[in-house]
Amino acid sequence: MERHEGTNDSDQIAAARQAIVAAVDRGLTLGTAESLTGGSVAAALVSVPGASEAFEGAVVSYSHAVKTRTLGVPAELLERVGAVDAQVAEEMARGARRALGVDVAVSTTGVAGPEPHDGKPVGTVFVAVAGPGGTSSTELHLDGDRAEIREQSVLAALRDVTTHCRHSETSQ
Fold first, then answer.
1. Please, which residues bridge with residue 110 across strands?
2. What DSSP string runs through the chain?
3. Is the predicted pLDDT of residue 1 greater than 60, yes or no?
4. Per-position b or e across 85-103, b if 16+ CB within 10 A of its CB
5. What does the pLDDT look like over 13-54, one tens digit per residue?
6. pTM given for the model
């Protein structure tokens, strides 16, 4: 578990650039599956000049129905644990990888507030990355208002993508 403080736009721009460079250097394609960030990870990635060399697309899966229908997250898993869970984040990332046909996909799910959700307190976020070498997730406990939690989640997702790409084998 990690605890993060606020972020700023320059941190996000730098992190997005690093993610794109890491993917391009390894010949990997990228995609996203986003719930609480609502497409902000994808938007950060495509803000980088040359992003099209690596970034393929995104799925914004705010509802359980889209998580199940588009990403293949088992409905029974969502019913049992809710959307704010490491296993759900991992299923979302794997599902985005399949749906988008990419080498590496990152997902975000969590509680940005203002109220707790699925029995989880505001600031609970899960980021997962799926790639050729497997899937991993990170649990975050973030502070701030709704916008700050979402911004910090985007930054964490971008950093996790960069790390995953740097340690990944080339495209399969």
1. 125
2. -EEE----HHHHHHHHHHHHHHHHHHT--EEEEESTTTTHHHHHHHTSTTGGGTEEEEEE--SHHHHHHTT---HHHHHHH-SSSHHHHHHHHHHHHHHHT-SEEEEEEE--SSS-BTTB-TTEEEEEEEETTEEEEEEEEE-S-HHHHHHHHHHHHHHHHHHHHHTSPSP-
3. no
4. bbebbbbbbbbbbebbebb
5. 999 999 999 999 999 999 999 999 999 999 999 999 999 999
6. 0.93
Structure tokens at 61: 């899966």
Number of Cβ within 10 Å of residue 10's Cβ equals 8
Q: Do 109 and 35 contact (CB within 8 A), yes or no?
A: yes
* pLDDT exceeds cutoff 80 at 110: yes
Cβ neighbour number for residue 139 with a 10 Å cutoff: 15
Side chain identity, residue 121? P
Sheet of strand 30-34: strand arrangement: 2-4, 134-142, 124-131, 104-110, 30-34, 55-60
- The answer to whether the beta carbons of residues 47 and 76 sit under 8 Å apart is no
Tokens representing 143? 């502070």
Residue 91 tokens, joined? 């299923």
